[in-house]
Structures
1.
Amino acid sequence: MRLTPARLLLAEQSSYYLHGEDEDAIFESAEALLAAGVPDAVRIRVDINELATVEQESRNQGLFGPSICYALVRNAQSANPKQSEHLLKLARTVSEGNRLIICAPGIDWKKALHKKMKSEQLIAECEFSKPDEAAFARWLEAEIKKSGLNVAPDALLWMSDRLCGMRLAARQMIERLGWYDDGEGAEIGLDTVSELLGERAPGALEEWCHAVAMRKPFALTLVRRLLHEQQVAEVQMISWLGTRMQQILMYRWFQSRNDRNALQAARVFGDARRKVGEESRVWKGSELALAVKRIIDAEKLVKGATIEDRPVVIERLTLDLVERERLGA
């Protein structure tokens, strides 16, 4: 059964197959499908090698009778033939009340799994084509208006061009613009937007991000230079470092799944393309997750969740990421 993205949430099917080139839209819709429905349903997200978890949760009888299970499979495009057959069997036999959402961004149209999923009448199939620039620009403008920000037209156009199709990155950018504005309502121009997005900055800022990503003590010297000598805004430093560490984390994730182009899949751009591979080898997977969490916590403090000076927050964050013992504490 073929559905359009606009009709997806209106449908009440047991199995969904989401595919196409717009990866962010696929996962955004998948999360919406996962969240909709019975409030107390068990909701799980799994990779293609964890299908047994879906079977276990969906067949769980529980102490007070059977429970409802909604499951999201994140990377069906990576399935081998055996996993493909297993996934097809699950999709055809979803129990009443349960829900299975299968995501396959960028799947090869010649792949057997793709052909079989599309031919199944019991599976709601929806394709998310390459993002339309005009549609993305309208979506971005609506999101910015919803946030209450006043972004200059040329800055909005520039953001739309740079972030086209990357909805998650756009939402993160809007959030950081909100922290920068701090409720003042002043017009945010192109200079500010380009600095926060990582296009214009002192050369030492990229050098600092790389030093932190490589866990070099020299990062502590650079952070003081940026804060005290060059007067770089703390929110800009958080934006750059947060983007870099998320890129490393996503690069490692796609690389572990043997993606043909992990850099492209992780949306790594600019100078980072030459450095992320080397930087990723410095970190364990568990450390990367802790590092991203530590940056998110620092973002909240920079936003105003503490009376502590913002430069101190950035300096301590740098120290936490560079020294292995502090990150694990």
2.
Amino acid sequence: MSEQTIIRETFEKGKGVFRLKPVFVPRRFGRAGRRLRLHPDDYYALGTKRGSIKERWFSSVIAAMNGPLASPDEGMSRVAADEEGTRTFLLRDAVLELGAALIGPKLHAQYGMWPMYAKFFDFRTPLFHHLHLDEAASALVGRAGKPEAYYFPPQLNSHLGSFPVTYFGYDPDVTREQVRERLLAFECGDNRITELSRAYRIELGTGWYTPPGVVHAPGSVLTYEPQWNSDVNSVHENIVADEVYPYEFLVENCPEERKYDIDYIMSLLDWEKNVDPHYKRHYFRPPIVCPHSDERHTEKWIAYGNDYFGAKELTVHPGQTVTVRDEAAYGCIVVQGHGGFGGFTAESAGMLRFGAMSADEFFVSEEAAKAGILVRNDSRWEPLVMLKHFGPNHPQMPKSTAP
């Protein structure tokens, strides 16, 4: 049987809903937060040279930019074609085969592919101060720009790590020359560049939007990150939690001839956004309750106010069943409770083995989303909670922050 036939049969059997297999991604830097619900023995499942596993990716059609030891499909989501997940195919291949029937005619016409992904980002220590490149700078190295959003789910944050504070941008009084001097000192000693930044204590149940070109140093809280289909950055901080980062981290997404051009490196900054005196007003994202919420369920927008992606948190209260409708395709991850999702069993993960199947991640076609997914909470006591990530075409996504 051809893969095309398997894709179409799986799509029809799930009535427009795919069940996805967990995808865990190692990183060679930082320390694992160990909140991904992965078995303790599996954090080095790909070997110590790859570093510990610190991320789980959702609805991904792109590979992680993870060095020469990574497999070509690392980070890419796979659809389970059978109950045990022993037979799978790439979500990317399903989009190529099904096209508008899966992601909807608007996204397919505009992008030809599912344009975003989401992940859990899980570091015990803070991450380096870095920025993501915009579309123009990314195009010079054959990649796409990367805006991203953050949401801090309480269900996965019983422990907040060593530094639950995130830096964004630079203080409004900081000058370009001050930043330039710190970057020129990247190989000379600790450049302590976050001394020029602004820090915000992380509030669980809230989030932020981070445009390309804005430096940020995420804190040590497990973070749900909807983002554009890219994995490009420039690291401005050279020593974090006693870990030293090489110069290549600063320039790995610069054209070869510009890697020692400080003016080019500085040009990757969106200076006005970095020194915005009202940064929190413009980019903080408190949850917005959807008007269709009722005594059976509550739905909130948790990522919104941008042109790239959105996300919701759906809570179905104990013992309740609801039909949930959306006007766009989406991926989702169950973070609490158990019950049903369409024709599938749905349950949050307690402890997963690397490479094993789960019942907590799905991808919903646009037609199935519009028709409505029956979501059932089988618990008498616990809510059933899931996070849902969309592309830029959900018509109900708020365009600005809550008043």
3.
Amino acid sequence: MAKLRYFDAREQIKPAESRLPTKHSEFLRTGRISRRREDWLPEERRYLTHEEVAERTARKLQAAGEKTHQNINGFHRSIQFPKMIFHRTLADSPHLGYCHVTASRTKFARYDEVAWAFYIANFYSDIGDNDNFFDNIAVQNSRMYFAVAIKPGDSTPERMVVDRSVRGNGLLFRTDDPQIAIRNILLLGARNEQLRQIIRQL
């Protein structure tokens, strides 16, 4: 696959500017040749390095993570999650990335205790079954909220890895709707069934 190139997008031509006379008609009307540089030399695109793109993506992911964590902890004082925000961009596509928002433990379905982590990504994809965390990335959807079961990594450089013994691939939920995501996180964090019933009615 060819390496992606990114350029700094310029502002679009304003409607007033687009009605300016063309160079040849201006010469025919006045007999003058414009010496202004911008009339003859188009602005060159300034290409961005992958590091610059990754930096811009990281700032957006950080802001989204902060806002989402604030929304989750603002629901009820009995459901509070630790702030554990960090982000990663994809190596060959630094305009794509994901942000870890929080992590916790909960009793989940038939599992006694499940450690899990909640993420936001600026794309939509499947969660891979192997070392490739994301499969079939679709950038048409601008955001994905998901939670996965996690466990300590044994022979990997990562401290925590996806616990694929939970539901086959470790995925607890995945959605592009922020309201559904927050409701699911609150259900995972609710301490008793009474609180879960209230959350389900939201």
4.
Amino acid sequence: MEDNECESVFETQIREEHVETLFGNVHCVMTGTPRASRPVILTFHDVGLNYKTCFETLFSHEDMQEIIGHFPVCHVEAPGQHEGAKTLPSSYTYPTVDQLSEVLPAVLKHFGLRSVIGIGVGAGAYILAKFALIHPDLVDGLLLININPNAEGMIDSVATKITEWTHTLPDTIISHLFGTEEIQTNHDLIATYRHHITTTMNQSNVSQFLRSYNSRNALDVERPVAGTNINVRTLKCSTLLIVGDNSPVVEPVVDCNSKLNPTKTTLLKMSDCGGLPHVEQPAKVIEAFKYFIQGMGYLSSVSMTRLRSRTTSSSSISSFDGSRSRSHTNDLQRGRTHSQGPEDKRGPSHTDGSMESVPINNLSHSVSKSTEVAC
């Protein structure tokens, strides 16, 4: 699937442009040169963040350089959410999240992109999932962090109204991004993001984006049933769901996993991690992303150095467990692996040991299984 995999497509040149769409101009940052032979990584941020505050830690990490050396990256920001944005005019009607998903075809056309691997967080994850449902031919894969597929119920709506009356906008955003325990204990991280929200974001524009996200409809997906001919509405592409175990949206992410195709979806629940796993544990998220990309047939020569993996029944939730890594040091050093059988060309059915020299070809297995990962 790769043409000359060793040849990098990454370039230092960065294109920063405002792309005109039916629902207003969106700020985009394009890095690298698109090629017909491979997709482009496309990101969409969460409420209260922009592409820098949401993804800079992930994409500047040294482990990510091998990936972006082969894949161009296009960061998309919702209208008025970029750094230094002016207040949107009063005559402008802020788009719904469904409409925001419809700005993406214009972005792809503007930059000449044929297909994408989407990385979305929170609201951005919902928007990319919606985009993939409407335009499955344009999406090769999705990494969705903190996706909430549900609409706000009546009780949630009332709680949101009360929060708007009693809390400042930065407080509301912090509660959206982080769980209660993390807010109370991880003071440095919370202070950093409160500063980002207060100083780099236009508060009026953020408020409109937040209102749009809170007014979302439920993501219309249904898990297909094996052996039936019913063509249910679901994500067609390989999908990796990630959530921290201290995130405020653990239950919605697990619920989303239950509604997607188990043969194409993997859920990773990261222990010792809160609302932004790609910020708090970027190396682990990147390693999982490498497995995911390899499962799609790309970067097969990339070696895995951090994770040990074994498949379990679908009733278990995948997890990164930092404490377990220390207890399994001897297992990692032994590097015990089981070879891949001919019946499953997409990846080994059971692996227990070091991945230092064993490329894994698929994180999303072709049977109804989850992947338990410890590092």
